[in-house]
Structure formats: C-alpha cells, structure tokens
C-alpha cells in the first residue's frame, strides 16, 4: 500500500475531546519499555479486555480472528484470543462490531512516522493529538476508509502537551482507533468509550 493514497479518504468527522491522560494504563506504570515502541490496549465500550500488548517488531496486525485467522501465523494481536472476561455475555452491539473487524488494521513504524493501514472491509476512526496540531483546543476524529492508510504520529514533530478546559491534560502519545463505529458531536456516541470495539495505542516515551 503506497503512502500516496493514504490521506485522501482520511477525513475529519468533527471535533472531539479526549479524557484526561490515558485510559489504557489503568494505573499501570509506563516504565520498563525496553525495546517496545508501543503498547496496545483493546477495549469494548468502557471495559478493557485482556492485558496490554507490547510491540517490538516494526509492523503489527490487530485483527478479528474470524475464519481461524488467529492460527494463521500472523504476528500481532488477535482479538478473538483475548480473555473475554470469563463467561460474561457479550453486548449485542459489541458482538456485531467484532464480527466486522476481519483483517483489522496494521500499525507500522516507518522512517517518516507511525502509519495505520486499514485492511478491513469497514472504516476505522482515529483520534490522535499528532493529527490536530493546528487546533490545540480540540482533538479531531479522522475516518480512514477500507484499503487506505494514515500517518497517525510523526516522531520528528511530536505534539505538544495539551490541557483542555474542564478535562485536563491529554496524553500526547496516546492514539485511539475505533473499528467500524465513529464518535463525536455528530454521532450518538459522543466519546470513544461509547464505541463497541476500540484500540488505544500507547507510544513509547522519547528516548
């Protein structure tokens, strides 16, 4: 997939503000990164599913696992293999959205930044402080269509620390990705925590 086709269909859905700091840490210390360049946390609505997933290879897949893909030898985070909180029944909207994830996304650390490739048949929605440098008081949500990609973080131009009114500081190295469902003022889902299936990407602190 060429970078040149990446941002034409990655368009803003509207302004959206993130909650303070990072949800994925859940009180866990962000230390001992060693050779990890990011960590992944998968969420269903307001509940994190499974543990954080440390990434050391330059490209990692996050996929649904339908059709036995979890055993296909792909390197990455297979969502179907995560601990699903025991035998608790899955919310219907979560179940339907998970079934649409399919090949999911690829996150790739490249020379010009961190790129997201949408390999699924549904759009994904992205909010990253790095995509909103020109609008420090509001974080935008971007739509990435199937088959397209978007640079979600440029380490050469890291976003400044931002503190939003009535919210507080926002982690400038935290990226949120929702599968199939968008959020923001024009949606019934005003916050990412209302999305059925979403991913938080915690980028390693600068060395």
UniProtKB/TrEMBL annotation:
UniProt keyword terms in alphabetical order: Transcription, Transcription regulation
Molecular-function annotations in GO: I-SMAD binding; transcription regulator inhibitor activity
GO biological process annotation, one example: regulation of transcription by RNA polymerase II
Annotated stretches, region: Disordered: 1-25
Keyword Chloroplast annotated: no
Biased composition annotated in UniProt, kind: Basic and acidic residues: 1-18
One matching Pfam family: MH2
InterPro entries for this protein: Dwarfin, SMAD-like_dom_sf, SMAD_dom_Dwarfin-type, SMAD_FHA_dom_sf
Secretion signal, residue range per the UniProt entry: none
GO cellular component, one term: heteromeric SMAD protein complex
Ranges of residues in domain MH2: 37-207
Protein name: MH2 domain-containing protein
Gene name tied to this protein: HaOG205584
């Amino acid at each position: 997939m060429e970078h040149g086709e990446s941002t034409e269909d990655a368009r803003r859905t509207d302004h959206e503000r993130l909650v303070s700091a990072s949800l994925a840490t859940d009180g866990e210390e962000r230390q001992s990164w060693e050779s990890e360049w990011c960590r992944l946390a998968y969420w269903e609505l307001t509940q994190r599913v499974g543990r954080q997933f440390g990434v050391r290879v330059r490209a990692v897949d996050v996929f649904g696992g339908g059709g036995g893909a979890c055993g296909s030898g792909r390197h990455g985070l297979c969502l179907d293999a995560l601990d699903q909180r025991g035998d608790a029944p899955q919310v219907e909207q979560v179940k339907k959205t998970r079934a649409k994830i399919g090949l999911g996304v690829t996150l790739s650390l490249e020379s010009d930044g961190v790129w997201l490739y949408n390999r699924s048949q549904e759009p994904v929605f992205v909010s990253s402080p790095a995509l909103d440098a020109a609008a420090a008081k509001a974080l935008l949500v971007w739509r990435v269509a199937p088959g397209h990609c978007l640079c979600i973080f440029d380490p050469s131009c890291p976003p400044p620390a931002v503190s939003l009114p009535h919210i507080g500081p926002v982690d400038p190295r935290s990226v949120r990705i929702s599968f199939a469902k968008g959020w923001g003022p024009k949606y019934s889902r005003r916050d990412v925590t209302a999305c059925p299936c979403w991913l938080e990407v915690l980028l390693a602190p600068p060395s």
